[in-house]
């Protein structure tokens, strides 16, 4: 046997051993430096601040009590206390450690009050934050601390509707053949709508302009955002160069136009915070990752446009009962006032002020009230059918429905996401035969 060869083998083995150990030794250097828990009304976010990018896996134990989410951090030590973590989240009962499979690992167990589909993703270090692992747990997480009364209040929050009367001040809007100003009639409709909304126990109104003055177009969505509005409706009257066109229409933001305009807007950093609206808190939390910010913004924009479409159908349905419609489907366009990414926003053209007949109608108090009532009914139906967590309408909302010709209980039930039996129970109906004009109370889901 060759001595050198044996030595060579030993040396090789040692080298292999060192190479095998090297990554393990290096990875064992990772550590959880701190843990932050942020409950918000609809989710709890848990952020693990780490020394290095996490190597992790997770699983849920939802078949046993307590419900648990288990996260294993490979070759990671825990350098922070878990005491009192998650105390102010309704969703998180306890955050603790458990025995990991490997000695170098850390196993974190999150005990939950309710099942939640976790979204878990790492974020790289940036100038403000170290490497992180973010755990989002969707579900009611509103703060547990504070007096019981405030929880009840939180649960039954009113939805805020921002009402934007178009034009104003030195901008009269369109002018009718007998001299009616658009700015004047739309303010009257907006005020009527506001008072109907304020009479509703589940809603409150915020008037973007309450008098005859002009508000900059870009400032209008911003004012709605400052008022923490859940919905934005802009009220206008149409005009054409000939007197014939007539009828109302409802407009929502066109996504394609919005994408490029929002993209350009995002580039102007001073506009960023006002544009991001509701998504802003999350974005602040994730540091300055532009792609994540854009993704969140897109999601927010998509869902608010979808909401606006859905709401516009309810409003069109209500309006078509009391006035002629110029367009019976929601119209898409890019209006400055509709560019709130965080809430459904739509624009109602209440009729053609350039049409002499509709100018008279728009001027009449009775028709203004009818228009306001139709818009109010549509918005209310939207919020009962698309309930926001912890709102009065989600918990107590019912809908008044007037039967139209061709209606059947099964169609109405399907449309409002309820059952024929539930409608019959709510209205003490013995049979399924409906009369046109009959009023039904539709129970909320
Ligand atoms: Zn207008």
Automatic annotation (TrEMBL):
<keyword id="KW-0732">Signal</keyword>
<dbReference type="Pfam" id="PF01476">
    <property type="entry name" value="LysM"/>
</dbReference>
<dbReference type="GO" id="GO:0071555">
    <property type="term" value="P:cell wall organization"/>
</dbReference>
<dbReference type="InterPro" id="IPR018392">
    <property type="entry name" value="LysM"/>
</dbReference>
<keyword id="KW-0961">Cell wall biogenesis/degradation</keyword>
<dbReference type="GO" id="GO:0009253">
    <property type="term" value="P:peptidoglycan catabolic process"/>
</dbReference>
<dbReference type="GO" id="GO:0030288">
    <property type="term" value="C:outer membrane-bounded periplasmic space"/>
</dbReference>
<keyword id="KW-0378">Hydrolase</keyword>
<dbReference type="InterPro" id="IPR050695">
    <property type="entry name" value="N-acetylmuramoyl_amidase_3"/>
</dbReference>
<comment type="similarity">
    <text>Belongs to the N-acetylmuramoyl-L-alanine amidase 3 family.</text>
</comment>
<dbReference type="Pfam" id="PF01520">
    <property type="entry name" value="Amidase_3"/>
</dbReference>
<dbReference type="InterPro" id="IPR002508">
    <property type="entry name" value="MurNAc-LAA_cat"/>
</dbReference>
<dbReference type="Pfam" id="PF11741">
    <property type="entry name" value="AMIN"/>
</dbReference>
<feature type="domain" description="LysM">
    <location>
        <begin position="399"/>
        <end position="442"/>
    </location>
</feature>
<feature type="signal peptide">
    <location>
        <begin position="1"/>
        <end position="26"/>
    </location>
</feature>
<keyword id="KW-0574">Periplasm</keyword>
<protein>
    <recommendedName>
        <fullName>N-acetylmuramoyl-L-alanine amidase AmiC</fullName>
        <ecNumber>3.5.1.28</ecNumber>
    </recommendedName>
</protein>
<dbReference type="InterPro" id="IPR021731">
    <property type="entry name" value="AMIN_dom"/>
</dbReference>
<dbReference type="GO" id="GO:0008745">
    <property type="term" value="F:N-acetylmuramoyl-L-alanine amidase activity"/>
</dbReference>
<dbReference type="InterPro" id="IPR036779">
    <property type="entry name" value="LysM_dom_sf"/>
</dbReference>
């Amino acid at each position: 046997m060759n001595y050198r060869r044996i030595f060579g083998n030993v040396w090789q083995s040692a080298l292999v051993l060192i190479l095998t150990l090297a990554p393990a030794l290096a990875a064992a250097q990772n550590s959880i430096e701190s843990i932050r828990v942020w409950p918000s009304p609809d989710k709890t976010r848990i952020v693990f601040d780490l020394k290095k990018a996490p190597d992790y896996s997770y699983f849920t134990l939802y078949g046993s009590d307590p419900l648990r989410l288990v996260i294993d951090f490979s070759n990671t030590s825990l350098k922070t206390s878990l005491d009192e973590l998650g105390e102010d989240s309704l969703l998180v009962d306890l955050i603790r450690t458990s025995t990991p499979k490997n000695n170098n690992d850390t196993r974190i167990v999150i005990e939950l009050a309710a099942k939640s589909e976790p979204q878990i993703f790492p974020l790289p270090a940036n100038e403000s934050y170290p490497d992180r692992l973010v755990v989002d747990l969707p579900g009611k997480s509103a703060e547990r601390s504070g007096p019981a009364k405030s929880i009840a209040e939180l649960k039954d929050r009113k939805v805020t509707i921002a009402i934007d009367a178009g034009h104003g001040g030195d901008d009269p809007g369109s002018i009718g053949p007998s001299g009616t100003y658009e700015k004047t009639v739309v303010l009257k409709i907006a005020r009527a709508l506001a008072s109907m909304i304020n009479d509703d126990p589940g809603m409150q109104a915020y008037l973007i302009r309450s008098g005859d003055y002009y508000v900059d177009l870009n400032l209008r969505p911003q004012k709605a955002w400052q008022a923490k509005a859940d919905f934005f409706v802009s009220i206008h009257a149409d005009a054409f160069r000939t007197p014939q066109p007539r009828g109302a229409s409802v407009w929502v933001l066109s996504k394609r136009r919005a994408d490029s305009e929002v993209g350009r807007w995002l580039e102007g950093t001073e506009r960023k915070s006002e544009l991001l609206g509701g998504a802003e808190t999350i974005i602040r939390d994730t540091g300055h990752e532009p792609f994540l910010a854009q993704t969140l913004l897109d999601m927010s924009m998509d869902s608010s446009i979808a909401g606006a479409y859905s709401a516009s159908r309810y409003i069109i349905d209500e309006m078509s009962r009391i006035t002629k419609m110029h367009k019976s489907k929601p119209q898409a366009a890019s209006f400055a006032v509709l560019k709130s990414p965080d809430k459904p926003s739509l624009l109602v053209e209440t009729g053609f002020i350039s049409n002499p007949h509709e100018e008279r109608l728009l001027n009449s108090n009775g028709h203004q009230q009818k228009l306001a009532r139709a818009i109010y009914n549509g918005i209310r139906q939207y919020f009962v059918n698309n309930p926001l967590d912890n709102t009065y309408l989600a918990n107590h909302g019912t809908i008044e429905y007037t039967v139209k010709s061709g209606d059947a209980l099964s169609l109405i039930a399907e449309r409002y996401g309820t059952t024929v039996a539930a409608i019959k129970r709510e209205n003490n109906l013995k049979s399924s035969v409906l009369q046109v004009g009959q009023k039904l109370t539709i129970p909320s889901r």
